[in-house]
Specification:
Strand order of the largest sheet: 7-6-8-9-10-12-13
Shape: elongated
Strand content: 15-25%
Distance between the termini: 102 Å
CATH class of one domain: Alpha Beta
Number of helices: 11
CATH architecture of one domain: 3-Layer(aba) Sandwich
Structural class: alpha/beta
CATH superfamily of one domain: Response regulator
Order of helices and strands: HHEHEHEHEEHEHEHEHEHEHEEE
């Protein structure tokens, strides 16, 4: 009997040893390879861009200026490359129209609203409506902001700083010609953007050592108005040394008027960096001295990428992102650093 019990105990011990040796090491256990309870892997917690084709509302304040046409085309191209739908509206420089356009876009099941405006402070209702719908807002080349409503980020050239680059170039050129005092007229729209640009150009001239006697300022909203205003200026003033123009439309309007009148004694310092301005600088009568350059394509491509990163990856950005300004003149394209700024 004792012998049978001993044999039975031995058999049980052998089975126990065999069972233990058959278990997998902890590192090979299915439980060991799982994420801890309540945690999700990074791959699962981040949506992938290809998972969803976005619909973006693009509200343009104007498409009457080549700068904004370039910006619009670049943003639409960036959306197309990403497989997104872009719904574009044009306010034709009317703030109330842009407000209505934005509100209409917000009712079209868009994933983000991108806008550029001269009068962002008039769009409070659209900002509030977007916030209520949890639709993020991204701003390009928008200087003024509403009192209410939040946005993700805005990108653009600081208009005063850009103007200063142009003014510094013009001032250095004038000094090289032995001219430290000039009689000037200014052409601008009268809005905050153009005022900041004008002030920047004048500050750059002063910083370069040129004293400006401002004969008069003319407000105009188009090239045709600028041309007519400058015709009046040339009739009123026998001598004009410098034209401070705060956009390509103002600059080219003055240039056309001066060319038609055969007046070549003045120089034009303008803003926008349009192709026709560069053509006038390179191959014109010599009156178009310089134009401040911006990067509308770069702004559009940056914002398109940031929309993607914000929606899919929860990226965050500074409230304002400065796009650098340069100047194109008789010496070609120059940066602010080339002129000793910054």
């Amino acid at each position: 009997m004792k012998k049978r019990i001993a044999l039975l105990l031995a058999a049980l011990m052998l089975l126990a040893i065999t069972a233990c040796s058959a278990e997998k090491p902890a590192s090979e256990s299915p439980l060991a390879s799982q994420e801890p309870a309540g945690e999700v892997s990074a791959e699962e917690s981040t949506a992938q861009p290809g998972d969803q084709a976005l619909t973006i509302g693009l509200s343009m304040y104007t498409l009457e200026y080549p700068f904004y046409v370039t910006m619009c085309d670049a943003f639409e191209a960036a959306c197309e490359e990403k497989g997104w739908t872009c719904i574009t509206t044009n306010a034709s420089t009317d703030a109330s129209t842009q407000l209505n356009n934005c509100l209409d876009l917000l009712n079209k099941d868009i994933d983000a609203l991108v806008l550029t405006s001269w009068y962002g402070d008039a769009l409070s209702e659209a900002f509030i409506a977007a916030n209520e719908k949890n639709i993020p807002i991204f701003l390009m080349d928008t200087s003024t902001l509403p009192d209410e409503g939040e946005y993700v980020t805005r990108i653009g050239t600081v208009n005063y700083d850009g103007g200063m680059v142009g003014g510094m170039y013009a001032g250095q050129y004038l000094l090289e010609q032995g001219r430290s005092e000039v009689d000037a007229v200014a052409l601008h729209s009268g809005d905050q953007v153009s005022v900041d640009r004008r002030d920047g150009i004048l500050a750059g001239l002063e910083a370069a050592g040129v004293s400006v006697n401002m004969l008069n300022e003319y407000h105009s909203a188009s090239r045709e108005e600028s041309m007519a205003n400058f015709e009046d200026a040339m009739t009123t003033y026998a001598k004009i040394d410098l034209v401070v123009a705060t956009s390509a439309q103002h600059g080219m309007g003055a240039y056309s008027a001066a060319e038609a009148a055969g007046r070549t004694e003045m120089l034009i310092a303008a803003y926008d960096g349009e192709a026709e301005e560069m053509e006038a600088i390179d191959n014109g009568t010599g009156t178009y001295l310089c134009t401040v350059t911006q990067d509308p394509v770069g702004m559009s491509e940056t914002i398109a990428q940031q929309v993607e990163d914000y929606i899919f990856n929860g990226a965050t950005y500074e409230q304002f992102q400065s796009a650098p300004a340069g100047v194109y003149g008789k010496d070609g394209q120059l940066s602010a650093a080339d002129l000793g700024i910054g």
